Amino acid sequence: MGSINQTGTGIRLPNFCNLGVMLRSLVVANVFVLAFAIVRAATWEAFSAELVGMAAFAEPILITTLAMLCFSRPALKRMPYGAALLAVALFELLLAWTIFQLGASISLEPRTASFPQVALLSLFVTGCVVAYFELRARALEPAVAEARIQALQARIRPHFLYNSINAVLSLIRSEPRRAERALEDLADLFRVLMAENRTLAPLASEIGLVRQYLALESLRLGERLRVAWRTEGMPGDALVPPLVLQPLVENAVYHGIEPCPEGGEIGIEVGLAGGQLQMVLTNPYPRESRQTAGNRMAIANIRERLQLHFDAEAAMRSEVTDGIYKVTIRMPYLTSKSPAA
Q1: How buried is 159 (Cβ within 10 angstroms: 0-12 exposed, 13-18 middle, 19+ buried)?
Q2: What is the DSSP string of 93-147?
């Protein structure tokens, strides 16, 4: 199971197979290349020459390093953080030495820097890139804890908890087996909420959780709650962030179905689109929808967790069209066998 864009547990090396991580790494490293060229140049003509020369040396190192880090991700995931950093540093030194010697053999101009200077520069830039991702991960990490708190608070809303218990009580004598299943569903919901939820989970488990939640809500809403499932093309082995769909379904019930006396239909579509996993959720949008701030909070939290797991490779969009509220989530299609998982 893939952790939050990192290897192992806690703060670890980022997932360099991720497009967003690659782009951020290139931007950070090239900012340093630009800064060093400015410092070394005395004139504008000298700056251009310095920038071209440093770019010719730095870009092969950057591209080769990113390719190596992506290719060796499975091995780095199994290593402690310190050992992984040491392996990256040694590779950087070896690569810098190789390109330094290659550049010296094809250039007729005298060297302007010694290899120790080049090695220190390479290690400094590498350290700054790693430090940037570590600080970024620490800044985004509270989203996981916040998601658990928000989801738990939403789940124990009195109207949901009390109505669910009352519905179960009404079934104990007439339909004991159905009451027993409802209690099991309620227990499963709380068990998932109390789990750490730091790693990606199978999509089939998330869909199962949504079905359990809807089964509980159908006890009290009856025919007012209608659900249209479109999951024929769903890849059950896909990995997704836990509680990425269930809170949206809960919001659809709370904001879209409950305010309507006649009820409404929730549409849930899960499948592949353009090689990515796509989830589409639709529900009625009453003009006097309540607790819209809470709905926006849930949307913002899920969007933040998608960024935490997948960076720029995931997207989330919400819109209202003709009285229908629609949320679309796109994320990479990862399985337990994927290199980036």
Answers
A1: exposed
A2: HHHHHHHHHHHHHH--SPPSS-HHHHHHHHHHHHHHHHHHHHHHHHHHTHHHHHH
% of the chain at pLDDT higher than 70: 78
d(CA 173, CA 181): 14
Whether the model pTM is above 0.70: no
Helix (H, G, I), strand (E, B) or coil at 324: strand
Query: Quick check: helix, strand or coil at residue 66?
Result: helix
Mind listing the pLDDT tens digit for each residue in 199-221? Answer: 788 999 889 888 888 888 887 78
Q: What type of residue sits at position 108?
A: L
Longest C-alpha distance within the chain, in Å? 93
List the structure tokens of 330: 């796109």
Is 331 within 8 Å of 64 (Cβ atoms)? no
Q: Are 281 and 327 in contact, with CB atoms under 8 Å apart?
A: yes
CA distances from 162 to 59, 156, 166, 213, 252 (A): 61, 9, 6, 14, 19
